[in-house]
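Appendix B, Record 12. Input sequence as logged:
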Amino acid sequence: MGRRRKKKQLGSRRKRMQRSARLQSAASWLKEYGGKNVLRGYCKHFGVDWRCAAVELKQLGVRLDPEYLKQREITEQELAKSRQQRRAAQSGEASSDGWYNYSVPLEAYLGEDYAALYAMEHEFGT
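Logged structural output:
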């Protein structure tokens, strides 16, 4: 007989709801909500992204500022670009001497980076 695995608890019920159940629950949640930003509160409470929250709040009759939504979209695109640039810089794609960080094949061999060693041998023809 094997060991029994512990059962993991499920997440909060409201964060596992499908759209139809969320919309029913959100009607009563909206009456009780006392925060400044309904969109952000909806996102946090139900565990959805802001686009989904915007669609569902519109279905519930909440008016959202279109300029605010447009600005959210622009900000998200800028964040995605900066993340992509940061990843490119960290992975070494921006280096000028190829994807490896070695100047001679011996360094690649000592560093046990055989993929870089193979690429260097084919690049230098040794």
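The two ends are 58 Å apart (CA to CA).
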